[in-house]
Amino acid sequence: MKYLDEYRDADITRALAARIRARVTRPWVLMEICGGQTHTLMRYGLPDLLPPEVELVHGPGCPVCVAPLEFVDRAIEIASRPGVIFVSYGDMLRVPGSQSDLFRVRAAGGDVRMAYSPLEAVKLAQEYPTRQVVFFGIGFETTAPANAMAVWHAKRLGLTNFSMLVSHVLVPPAVRLLLGSPVNRVQGFIAPGHVCTIMGHREYQALSTEFHVPIVIGGFEPVDLLEAIAMLVDQLEDGRAQLENQYSRSVTREGNIPAQKLMEEVFEITDRKWRGIGMIPLSGHRFREEYAAYDAERIFGAQEIHVEEPAECISALVLQGLKKPVDCTAFGTRCTPEQPLGAPMVSSEGACAAYYAYRRHTAPEASA
Q1: Measured between alpha carbons, how far is 20 from 10 in angstroms, rounded to an integer?
Q2: What domains are defined for the chain?
Q3: 126-137 burial, b for 16+ CB within 10 Å, e for fewer?
Q4: Helix (H) or strand (E) holding 215
Q5: What is the pLDDT of residue 306?
Q6: Measuring CA to CA, which residue among 240, 238, 188, 237 is closest to residue 217?
Q7: Stated pTM of the model
Q8: Which stretches within 112-170 are classed as H helix?
Q9: 169 in Cβ contact with 64 (< 8 Å)
Q10: How far apart are CA 120 and CA 127, in angstroms?
Q11: Which of 159, 157, 188, 158 is nearest to 175 (CA)?
Q12: Segment holding 217, helix H or strand E
C-alpha cells in the first residue's frame, strides 16, 4: 500500500534496532500506552530485535480492557430487556461480565447487534421507532468524537428511542496515575498516536515537564515504534526529558479542533472507574445535562449495578506495566480467547490477546 510499505521496511527496521543497540548503556523500562502498538510489537517480533537492556511493558491503552466489569454487567442487563436493540463494537460482545457476556444474551434471544459506527445505531432507531436502540459507547478520545456525533445527530433528528451507555476514558489521567505510583517502573513512554491525532500533544507535554519523563508520540507500524524507542533511548542516555513527536504525519500540537469541540458540546469530564485499577479522578466522559435524554444509564436505571473484579485475573497489573501476560498462571490454559477470564484476552488491542497470538512460546511452564 502506498505510504505504508516504507514503515514496514526490513532494512530500516534492522538499522533502527542496530542504532538502539549501539546507543544503550544501561537498563531502561519503556511503556507503549496503546494496545494497537502492543499488537504491532508482538506481531512483528520487535522486542526480539532490542538489546536486553531495553524492556517493554504494556500500558492501559485498550478501551475494551479498561471498561469496568460493572459496566459490562450494565450492558448485559439492558441488552436482556424486551424491546431493546443493543448495538456494540464487536470486541465488546465476548468481554466477560460477572455472570455472562453479550454473545450469550444474543444466544438467549436478546437483540444484540455488532456495528462499525455508532451512526449505524442511529439509523436503526429511525428504522425501528417502537424499539429502544442502545449503543455501547466505549473508547478513548479516539472514538469519543464519533460517539458524540451520533448523539448530536440523534438530537437533531428528534429521536426519542436512541440512547448510549457511555464508558469513555481519557489517557493522560491514567498516565499521571502510573507516574505517581510508588511502584512505577516506567522511565519513558510511547504516547498513543491516534489519541494525539484528536487531542494534540499539549497534555503530554505537561506530563513530561511535571514528572521529568521522556514521552515520544508514536505511530503503529514497525518503523514508527522502533524509531520512537530509539528517540526515548537517546533522551534517557542523554539525561533529557522532553515531549517529541515521531508520528508527525498525523499528529499536530493542537489536534483536531472540530472533533474536540463536538466532544465538549456533548460530554463533560468526570471521575471514571477503570477495570482493575479503580476510580481515577477526571479521567472520563459523561453526558452534559443538555444531552441527558440520551443517557442509557439514566433511562434504564443501570447506575446501581456494582460488582467485584475476579481475583484470578491479573489484567490490572498488566495494564499498569507491572506484569506481563505470561506471568499469569491462567494464561493459555484457563484463560484463552475462547474462554477469557478478562477483557485483555478478548480485545483486538488487548495485551493478553497479542501474547496469545504471537508469543505463546514465552509462557512459563506452569501455564503451558
Answers
A1: 15
A2: 1-300+308-325 (3.40.50.11740), 326-367 (no CATH)
A3: eeeeebbbbbbb
A4: strand 215-218
A5: 61
A6: 188
A7: 0.91
A8: 118-127, 144-157
A9: no
A10: 11
A11: 188
A12: strand 215-218
What does the alpha-carbon distance between residue 47 and residue 86 come to, in Å, rounded to a whole number?
40
The pLDDT tens digits of the residues spanning 325-366 come to: 999 989 988 889 888 888 888 888 889 999 999 875 554 443
> What are 265's three cell numbers?
458540546
CB contact at 8 A, 268 and 288? yes
Cα separation, 33 vs 197, in Å, equals 15
The C-alpha atoms of residue 207 and residue 191 are separated, in whole angstroms, by 11
Amino acid at 239: G
How far apart (Å, rounded) are the C-alpha atoms in residues 227 and 6?
Answer: 13
Average pLDDT, the chain: 91
Q: Give the pLDDT confidence of 279-338 residue by residue, as tens digits.
A: 999 999 999 999 999 999 999 987 665 666 667 788 888 888 889 999 998 998 888 988
* Cβ proximity of 52 and 210 under 8 Å: no
Q: How confident is the model at residue 368 (pLDDT cuts 50, 70, 90)?
A: very low
Q: Are 121 and 145 within 8 A, CB to CB?
A: no
Cβ neighbours, 10 Å, residue 334: 14
